[in-house]
Design brief:
The protein has helices at residues 11-23, 51-58, 73-78, 80-100, 134-149, 177-186, 206-219, 236-246, 271-275, 284-292, and strands at residues 2-6, 25-30, 43-45, 63-66, 105-109, 154-160, 162-164, 192-194, 200-201, 203-205, 224-228, 234-235, 254-256. It is of the alpha/beta class. It folds into 2 domains: 2-163 and 203-228, Rossmann fold, CATH 3.40.50; 166-201 and 232-294, UDP-galactose 4-epimerase, domain 1, CATH 3.90.25. The mean pLDDT is 97. It binds uridine-diphosphate-N-acetylglucosamine.
Length: 295
C-alpha cells in the first residue's frame, strides 16, 4: 500500500510519516524540506495549490493523509486568502486528482475549530458547527468536500483538538500556545495570556494523534468524522502556571487583549474514537516536562 502524507515537514505530519514509513511504502510532500533526518529522503518538495503538481504526486498512491495546512487562527484573520488557498484549494486538488487516479482512501485532518463556541461540553461530533474564524471556516469547508466526494473515494475526517509535541516551533509567532509560553519562560519572561486566561483547551500529545490516524486508516468509516483529544479541559491560566513552574519563573503571567475569534471552551468527547479502539495516553504535566528541553 502506497501512502502519501501531505504536510510531512510539519508538526503532526513529520511524526505520521516517520511512523508509517516503517510499515508501509510511505512518502511525504511539503513546501519545505523536513529538518528530521529519518524522513529527509522521502519527502518531495512541492506546492499542493498547483493542480498539475498534485496530479503527478498522487499517481499510484492508495492512501492520502492530508495534513498540509495553514494552522494558525490568528494568521487566518491576517491573510484569509492564503488560508483558503492552503486549506481549501489543496484539499480539492487532492480529492479531484485522487479520484481521477483511483485513490482508495483519503484521511482529512480537520480541526476542533469547526465547532466554534460549545453549546455543551464535552463536544461530540454531532455538535453544531459554527466556526468563529476564517481558519475554522476553511477547515469545515474541507470537511464538506470530503463528505460530498465520499461516494467516489473512502474519506475519513479527523478533528484533532490542541496538539503539542517537541516539534512545535517556538520561533514562529503563529505556533501554538505551548510553544509560545515555553519560548517566553526560557527567556526568563512571563507568558502572555490573551484575555482573562479562563478559556480552556483539550491538549493532546502528538503520539495520540498519530495513534488515531493509524486507527482511522484501518477502521475509519467513510464520510464520518472523529474527534481526537483527551476529554480533559485545561485553562490557559493553569497551563501558564504549569510552564512557569517547570522553568521556575516566579511572578504572574502578563495579560493582553483577547484574540479575535478565540474559542472560550474546548474539550473533546472521544467516545466515537474509543469505539474504534483509541485510548489517549497524554499526561499533560509529564509530557510538558519531557518536551520542555527539546523545544
Ligand atoms: C489550535 C491550533 C489549530 C488547531 C486548533 C484545534 C495552532 C497554532 N493552532 O488553535 O491549528 O486546529 O487548536 O483546536 O497550533 N494564547 C495565549 N497566549 C499566547 C498564545 C495563545 O493566551 O501566547 C491563547 C489563545 O488566545 C487561545 C489559546 O491560547 O485561547 C490557544 O491558542 P493556540 O495555541 O494559538 O490555539 P487555538 O487557537 O486553540
Amino acid at each position: 500500500m502506497r501512502i502519501l502524507v501531505t504536510g510531512a515537514s510539519g508538526q503532526i505530519g513529520s511524526y505520521v510519516l516517520e511512523r508509517l514509513a516503517d510499515e508501509y511504502d510511505a512518502v511525504g510532500v511539503d513546501l519545505k524540506v523536513p529538518t528530521i533526518k529519518a524522513i529527509k529522503d522521502i519527502v518531495i518538495r512541492g506546492d499542493l495549490r498547483d493542480f498539475n503538481f498534485v496530479r503527478k504526486v498522487v499517481r499510484g498512491v492508495d492512501v492520502v493523509i492530508h495534513l498540509a495546512a495553514q494552522v494558525s487562527v490568528e494568521n487566518s484573520w491576517k491573510d484569509p486568502v492564503y488560508d483558503v488557498e492552503n486549506n481549501i484549494m489543496t484539499t480539492i486538488n487532492l480529492l479531484e486528482a485522487g479520484i481521477k487516479t483511483g485513490l482508495d482512501r483519503f484521511i482529512y485532518i480537520s480541526s476542533a475549530a469547526v465547532y466554534g463556541d460549545p453549546h455543551h461540553i464535552p463536544i461530540d461530533e454531532e455538535h453544531p458547527k459554527n466556526p468563529l474564524s476564517p481558519y475554522g471556516v476553511s477547515k469545515l469547508t474541507g470537511e464538506h468536500y470530503c463528505r460530498i466526494f465520499s461516494e467516489k473515494v473512502h474519506t475519513v475526517i479527523v478533528r484533532p483538538f490542541n496538539v503539542f509535541s517537541a516539534r512545535m516551533d517556538p520561533a514562529n509567532p503563529y505556533s501554538g500556545v505551548i510553544a509560545r509560553f515555553i519560548s517566553r519562560v526560557k527567556q526568563n519572561l512571563p507568558p502572555i495570556i490573551y484575555g482573562d486566561g479562563r478559556q480552556t483547551r483539550d491538549f493532546v500529545h502528538v503520539k495520540d494523534v498519530v495513534n488515531f490516524i493509524e486507527i482511522a486508516l484501518r477502521k475509519g468509516k467513510s464520510g464520518e468524522a472523529y474527534n481526537v483529544g483527551t476529554g480533559k479541559e485545561t485553562s490557559i491560566l493553569e497551563l501558564a502556571e504549569i510552564i512557569m513552574d517547570l522553568a521556575r519563573v516566579k511572578g504572574s503571567p502578563e495579560f493582553g487583549k483577547p484574540r479575535k475569534g478565540d474559542i472560550k471552551r474546548s474539550c473533546a468527547d472521544i467516545s466515537k474514537a474509543r469505539k474504534l479502539g483509541f485510548e489517549p495516553e497524554t499526561d499533560l504535566k509529564k509530557d510538558l516536562k519531557d518536551i520542555f528541553d527539546k523545544i
